[in-house]
C-alpha cells in the first residue's frame, strides 16, 4: 500500500513539477540562446559608449519562434493588431522595436513612426529580403537594390502614373467593372470577395500580359493563389506544405510567361502592355532585360497588383455597405460628375485621369479604404551590418519587419482608428497625420 502511494506521489510530482519546468525551459531556451550568442559576440560597449543590448521581446519556441502566435492573431483570433499590442503591453513602447523569431529567421519588428522611418531611410544599413526571395523573383524590383532597383522602379512608376497610362488603365478597367456590376445585380446575392477577385484578375491579365479570360488564365489564377499562400507560410519545403505548392506553382508560371515571351520575340510582336514595356526596356548601355528579369518582374507585379487591388476593393465594398450615409455622398459626387460630362454613351461617361482631381470626396474614401485595408501590413528588410538605434543593437543578418499596419490603426495618430471615416482626410485634419502615410513613398512597388 505504501509503495503504491509512493508511486502515485512520484508521478504527481513529475506531472506538477518536472513537466511545467520542462515547458518553461523549452519556452525560454530559444530566447536564452540568441541572447547569449549576442552577448558573446557583441559584449562591451558600442561606438556611442552605451552597452549593447537587443531590443525587448521574446524569440518564442525553438525553430518555430513566434510564427504560431502570429498565425493565431491573424487567422484564428482575427485580431491582427493585438500581435503588436501584446508586445507593447508586455515590454512598453521603448524604441518602437521588438525582437522575435518569424518566418524562420531571428527578427526585429519596427512598429513606431520613428523606427520605421529610420529603417526605410537607411538603405545602406538595411537591404531588401523576402522570407523566400525566389517566390517573387530574385531579379524582380522587390528584391534587387541600387541602380537596378531605381531603373525598374522608374519604369514601373512611369508605366502606371503618366497620363497616357492612366487613360489606358481607365479605358480597360471601367467597361469590365461596369459589366461585372450588371452581372452582380442580375445575380442578386454574390460573394463579394470571389467576384471582385475575378474581375480584378481579368483586368490584371489584360493590362500586364494582354490575355483575355480563358481556361489558361483560370489556371494562372490558381497558381498565383498558391504563390500568395506560400509567401505567408513558414518556409517548409516538403510535399504537402504551402511553401512547396508555391514553389511548384511558381515554376508553372515561369513556363507560361517564358512561352509567351518567346512567342512574341519569334514574330517580333510588340504589345502595349507591361510585359511589352519590360521587353523593350534598356539600361544606360542600351542593354535590355534578360528573359529571367522580365518574367520575375511580371510575376512580382501581378502579385502586388492583384492582391492589393482585390483587398482594397473588397474592403471598400464592405465599409460602404455598412455606411449608407457615406455611400450616398459618394454616389452623389459620381452622379454629378457623370452629368457634367454630358453625352449619352457609356464611353463618353467614363471617368478620365483629368476627372479624378475633381472628385474630392471619392479621394477621401479611397484614402480611408487604403488606411483600413492595410494592403501591406509589413515590408521585409535585413540588417546589412550591426546597427545601433536608441540604445539597442540590430544584429547583422537579422530580418527587420517594418510593421506599417500598427501605424494605420494607432489611436495616437487617428481618432477612433477602427471606424471608417473619410472626413478624417479633410485638408485641415490631414496635416496632423500625413507623416504616417509618407512612409508609403518608401515602399517597394
Automatic annotation (TrEMBL):
InterPro entries on file: Cyt_P450, Cyt_P450_E_grp-IV, Cyt_P450_sf
Pathway: Hormone biosynthesis; Plant hormone biosynthesis
Keyword terms, alphabetized: Iron, Metal-binding
A GO term, aspect molecular function: monooxygenase activity
Gene Ontology process terms (BP): pollen tube development
Pfam families, sorted: p450
Superkingdom of source: Eukaryota
Protein name: Ent-kaurenoic acid oxidase
Biological source species: Triticum aestivum
Amino acid at each position: 500500500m505504501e509503495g503504491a502511494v509512493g508511486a502515485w506521489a512520484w508521478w504527481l510530482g513529475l506531472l506538477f513539477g518536472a513537466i511545467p519546468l520542462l515547458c518553461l525551459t523549452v519556452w525560454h531556451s530559444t530566447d536564452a540562446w540568441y541572447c547569449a550568442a549576442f552577448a558573446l559576440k557583441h559584449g562591451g560597449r558600442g561606438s556611442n559608449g552605451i552597452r549593447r543590448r537587443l531590443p525587448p521581446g521574446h524569440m518564442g519556441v525553438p525553430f518555430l519562434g513566434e510564427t504560431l502566435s502570429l498565425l493565431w492573431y491573424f487567422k484564428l483570433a482575427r485580431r491582427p493588431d493585438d500581435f503588436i499590442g501584446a508586445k507593447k503591453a508586455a515590454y512598453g513602447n521603448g524604441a518602437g522595436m521588438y525582437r522575435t523569431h518569424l518566418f524562420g529567421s531571428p527578427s526585429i519588428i519596427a512598429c513606431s513612426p520613428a523606427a520605421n522611418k529610420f529603417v526605410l531611410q537607411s538603405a545602406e544599413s538595411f537591404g531588401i529580403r523576402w522570407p523566400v526571395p525566389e517566390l517573387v523573383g530574385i531579379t524582380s524590383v522587390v528584391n534587387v537594390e541600387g541602380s537596378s532597383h531605381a531603373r525598374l522602379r522608374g519604369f514601373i512608376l512611369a508605366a502606371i502614373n503618366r497620363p497616357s497610362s492612366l487613360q489606358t488603365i481607365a479605358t480597360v478597367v471601367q467597361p469590365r467593372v461596369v459589366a461585372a456590376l450588371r452581372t452582380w445585380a442580375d445575380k442578386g446575392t454574390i460573394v463579394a470577395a470571389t467576384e471582385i477577385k475575378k474581375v480584378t484578375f481579368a483586368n490584371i491579365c489584360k493590362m500586364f500580359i494582354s490575355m483575355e479570360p480563358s481556361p489558361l488564365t483560370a489556371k494562372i489564377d490558381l497558381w498565383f493563389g498558391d504563390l500568395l499562400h506560400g509567401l505567408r507560410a513558414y518556409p517548409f519545403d516538403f510535399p504537402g506544405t504551402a511553401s512547396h505548392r508555391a514553389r511548384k506553382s511558381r515554376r508553372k508560371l515561369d513556363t507560361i510567361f517564358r512561352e509567351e515571351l518567346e512567342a512574341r520575340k519569334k514574330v517580333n510582336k510588340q504589345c502595349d502592355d507591361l510585359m511589352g514595356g519590360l521587353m523593350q526596356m534598356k539600361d544606360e548601355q542600351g542593354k535590355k532585360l534578360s528573359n529571367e528579369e522580365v518574367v520575375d518582374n511580371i510575376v512580382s507585379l501581378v502579385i502586388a497588383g492583384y492582391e492589393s487591388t482585390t483587398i482594397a476593393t473588397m474592403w471598400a465594398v464592405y465599409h460602404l455597405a455598412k455606411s449608407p450615409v457615406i455611400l450616398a455622398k459618394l454616389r452623389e459626387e459620381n452622379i454629378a460628375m457623370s452629368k457634367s460630362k454630358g453625352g449619352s454613351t457609356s464611353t463618353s461617361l467614363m471617368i478620365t485621369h483629368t476627372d479624378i482631381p475633381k472628385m474630392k470626396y471619392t479621394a477621401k474614401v479611397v484614402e480611408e479604404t487604403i488606411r483600413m485595408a492595410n494592403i501591406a501590413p509589413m515590408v521585409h528588410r535585413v540588417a546589412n551590418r550591426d546597427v545601433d538605434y536608441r540604445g539597442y543593437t540590430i544584429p547583422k543578418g537579422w530580418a527587420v519587419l517594418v510593421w506599417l499596419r500598427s501605424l494605420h490603426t494607432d489611436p495616437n495618430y487617428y481618432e477612433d482608428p477602427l471606424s471608417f471615416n473619410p472626413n478624417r482626410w479633410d485638408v485641415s485634419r490631414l496635416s496632423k497625420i500625413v507623416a504616417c502615410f509618407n512612409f508609403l513613398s518608401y515602399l517597394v512597388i
